């Protein structure tokens, strides 16, 4: 039996985060940081080239190539698949990724293959994402995988190089924060509304330095897709880590997926995963409780995700904001967004709708949007895109007939990718265009220079497409 | 990649009086199609510096000749939040920035700074606001990483803290990958042996 020194504090009740941390410490360092083992790493075309360059320059190989997964998602066109990518820069970036994964023997989800998709959608779909693991990716929304009870976080390209060569990363331990979701939600309120309401309350930097764990009856009742949406949005509150304890629903989701363990290994894994939830009596450094019964559909009005309000409210008046910093931020945001204080949010006209991204590009999201779009028409002058999060999601949606509901309503049905979430391909807002979007960031220029983004749930985005303005989805049933 | 050892920084400071300057503002996503890490300084704050026609936007601090080459940047809360793109740090470095002072940082950005020869200095909001006034007055700032002090010429030094391992790596220009492999090679092998035994499904 190989023994490892017990981490300090073991034996006392521990939170999920503490268990994940303790079980991955390779060495403690003199300044209180630790060297953490990284079990899984996802590589995409945009953030990885420089890491491979560093690896090659140092003459190193990947320590464990099979623990990495490569895919092209950020810059790829979504109109068609299989042909040559028109944009020469995107084409060469995808070609560079393909050359790198071939040279370093990294498993790769081909661009025109059945497992291609957004990094945070295909990790879970293929069973690459497992409870109890550490998962890194050169993308801040790696928080998503925490929905499976994994310790998952975004890293920079230099860190990717370190993971590739050493399978480890020096890390500072985070404080812990429990976000407890209680109450009974309105049927049209989903995880996106809850995440936006939470961020509006605690602020875009409200969880900095903390590993967030979502708990409570609302979370245990959620499908994995909603848990992923919650964890995904955690970075928008400033935290690198969002988690949900694994349970029967988690195991049911994973069982039989291509990369999930099978047979006896599956049984052994599940037995271990059952030990991961926070112990009774475990203490968090901070606790926030949110009553979801009081939440109305949310929509962002500004350029930071915490500048969010219920749809039945008006654009805030900066003059009424006491804190001078918040007032200046609101003035800046309203100027960029082209909004007038006092204007009703549900009167703001839009010209683009984007349903997709790693936040809301899963089958459940598409079903929710299709339920609103069914039998209706996209408003004249509005361009509406539905971009599935993965090729598998697209195939599933087509098997259910969702694509026909969308196209009959006037939506454009696309192939999988990040698309208008980050506007690195040809899906891009023109300056001044206004988009109802299911993505995660309403930053200046995020969907194209000068573009204006309003964040919301899939059902709310579909309602906006039909109305031609921001709209309350509760009026569409 | 081994960086240059960090030496004491001395010079002007550019003040950006805004909270939530995210990495999309520091380095707009469309430039991420460039796969080089050198020469990115021209894209730093691109859409704040340049109008659609490429003309410099008057009033933006890096278009002011006094601050164009300032090695210190003083910014509002939550600086570098959002996307993990390391290009944001490479672009700031390319612009000549060697220290960023703010009342709060995006966490991934903060780590990326430390790996790329930029010192992120966390100070209280009042202190930062006062430093913005000094910066705009054109006073010189000195960042002494070994002593962990920030000094505005003629004033008392302000202490700041950078964790020891990070500080040593910066001061010596150590590469993190080399450091991890050289110091912890045996620890990593021992960990893997233990994990293979206790969680064999992770090693198939
Ligand atoms: S969909 Fe958007 S947030 Fe998600 S990985 Fe792609 S670019 Fe990042």
Automatic annotation (TrEMBL), chain A:
Keywords: 4Fe-4S, Amino-acid biosynthesis, Branched-chain amino acid biosynthesis, Iron, Iron-sulfur, Leucine biosynthesis, Lyase, Metal-binding. It catalyses: (2R,3S)-3-isopropylmalate = (2S)-2-isopropylmalate. It comes from the Bacteria. InterPro entries: 3-IsopropMal_deHydase_lsu, Acnase/IPM_dHydase_lsu_aba_1/3, Acoase/IPM_deHydtase_lsu_aba, Aconitase_4Fe-4S_BS, Aconitase_4Fe-4S_dom, IPM_dehydratase_rel_enz, IPMI_cat. Pfam families: Aconitase. Its EC number is 4.2.1.33. Transmembrane segments: none annotated. PANTHER family: 3-ISOPROPYLMALATE DEHYDRATASE, HOMOACONITASE, MITOCHONDRIAL-RELATED. Catalyzes the isomerization between 2-isopropylmalate and 3-isopropylmalate, via the formation of 2-isopropylmaleate. This is 3-isopropylmalate dehydratase large subunit.
From TrEMBL, chain B:
Pathway: Amino-acid biosynthesis; L-leucine biosynthesis; L-leucine from 3-methyl-2-oxobutanoate: step 2/4. GO terms for molecular function: 3-isopropylmalate dehydratase activity. Keywords: Amino-acid biosynthesis, Branched-chain amino acid biosynthesis, Leucine biosynthesis, Lyase. Gene3D superfamilies: Aconitase, domain 4. The keyword Lipid metabolism does not apply. GO terms for biological process: L-leucine biosynthetic process. Its EC number is 4.2.1.33. It comes from the Bacteria. It holds the Pfam family Aconitase_C. Residues 4-123 form the Aconitase A/isopropylmalate dehydratase small subunit swivel domain. It catalyses: (2R,3S)-3-isopropylmalate = (2S)-2-isopropylmalate. Belongs to the LeuD family. LeuD type 1 subfamily. Catalyzes the isomerization between 2-isopropylmalate and 3-isopropylmalate, via the formation of 2-isopropylmaleate. This is 3-isopropylmalate dehydratase.
């Amino acid at each position: 039996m190989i023994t490892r020194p017990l981490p300090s504090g073991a034996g006392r009740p521990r939170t999920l985060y503490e268990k994940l941390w303790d079980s991955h410490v390779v060495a403690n360092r003199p300044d209180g940081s630790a060297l953490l083992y990284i079990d899984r790493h996802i590589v995409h075309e945009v953030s990885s080239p420089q890491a491979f360059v560093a690896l090659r320059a140092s003459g190193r190989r990947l320590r464990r190539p099979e623990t990495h997964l490569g895919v092209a998602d950020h810059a790829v066109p979504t109109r068609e698949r299989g042909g040559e990518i028109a944009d020469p820069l995107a084409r060469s970036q995808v070609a560079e990724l393909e050359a790198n994964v071939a040279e370093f023997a990294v498993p790769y989800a081909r661009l025109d293959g059945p497992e291609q998709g957004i990094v945070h959608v295909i990790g879970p779909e293929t069973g690459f994402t497992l409870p109890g693991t550490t998962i890194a990716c050169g993308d801040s929304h790696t928080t998503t995988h925490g929905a499976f009870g994994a310790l998952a976080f975004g890293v920079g390209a230099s860190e990717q190089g370190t993971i590739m060569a050493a399978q480890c990363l020096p890390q500072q331990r985070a404080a812990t924060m429990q976000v407890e979701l209680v109450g009974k939600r309105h049927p049209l309120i989903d995880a996106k509304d809850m995440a936006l309401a939470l961020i509006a309350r605690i602020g875009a930097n409200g969880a900095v330095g903390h590993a967030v764990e979502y708990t409570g009856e609302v979370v245990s009742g959620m499908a994995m897709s909603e848990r992923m949406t919650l964890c995904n949005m955690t970075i928008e509150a400033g935290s690198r880590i969002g988690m949900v304890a694994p349970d029967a629903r988690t195991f049911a989701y994973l069982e039989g997926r291509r990369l999930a363990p099978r047979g006896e290994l599956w049984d052994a894994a599940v037995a271990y995963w059952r030990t991961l939830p926070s112990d009774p009596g475990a203490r968090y450094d901070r606790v926030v409780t949110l009553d979801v019964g009081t939440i109305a559909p949310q929509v962002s009005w500004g350029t930071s995700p915490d500048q969010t309000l219920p749809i039945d409210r008006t654009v805030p008046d900066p003059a009424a904001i006491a804190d001078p910093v918040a007032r200046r931020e609101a003035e800046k945001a309203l100027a960029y967004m082209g909004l007038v204080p006092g204007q009703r949010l549900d009167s703001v006209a839009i010209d683009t709708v984007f349903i997709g991204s790693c936040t809301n590009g899963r089958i459940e999201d598409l079903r929710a949007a299709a339920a609103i779009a069914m039998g209706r028409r996209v408003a004249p002058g509005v361009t509406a895109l539905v971009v599935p999060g993965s090729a598998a999601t697209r195939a599933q949606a087509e098997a259910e007939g969702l694509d026909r509901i969308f196209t009959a309503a006037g939506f454009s049905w696309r192939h999988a990718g990040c698309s208008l979430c980050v506007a690195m391909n040809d899906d891009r807002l023109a300056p001044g265009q206004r988009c109802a979007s299911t993505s995660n960031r309403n930053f200046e220029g995020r969907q194209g220079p000068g573009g204006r983004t309003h964040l919301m749930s899939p059902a709310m985005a579909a309602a906006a497409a039909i109305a031609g303005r921001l709209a309350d989805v509760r009026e569409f049933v | 990649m081994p960086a240059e050892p960090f030496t004491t920084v001395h010079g002007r400071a550019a003040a950006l009086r805004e909270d939530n300057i995210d990495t999309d503002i520091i380095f707009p996503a469309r430039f991420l199609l460039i796969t080089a890490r050198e020469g990115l300084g021209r894209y730093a704050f691109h859409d704040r510096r340049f109008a659609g026609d490429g003309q410099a936007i008057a009033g933006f601090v890096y278009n002011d000749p006094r601050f164009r080459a300032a090695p210190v940047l003083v910014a509002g809360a939550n600086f570098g939040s959002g996307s993990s793109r390391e290009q944001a740090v490479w672009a700031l470095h390319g612009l000549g920035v060697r220290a960023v002072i703010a009342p709060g940082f995006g966490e991934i950005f903060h780590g990326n700074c430390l790996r790329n020869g930029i010192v992120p200095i966390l100070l209280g909001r009042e202190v930062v606001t006062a430093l913005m006034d000094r910066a705009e007055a054109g006073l010189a700032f000195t960042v002494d990483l070994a002593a962990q002090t920030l000094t505005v010429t003629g004033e008392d030094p302000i202490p700041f803290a950078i964790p020891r391992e990070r500080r040593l790596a910066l001061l010596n220009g150590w590469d993190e990958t080399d450091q991890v492999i050289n110091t912890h090679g045996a620890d990593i092998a021992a960990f893997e042996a233990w994990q293979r035994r206790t969680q064999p499904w992770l090693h198939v």
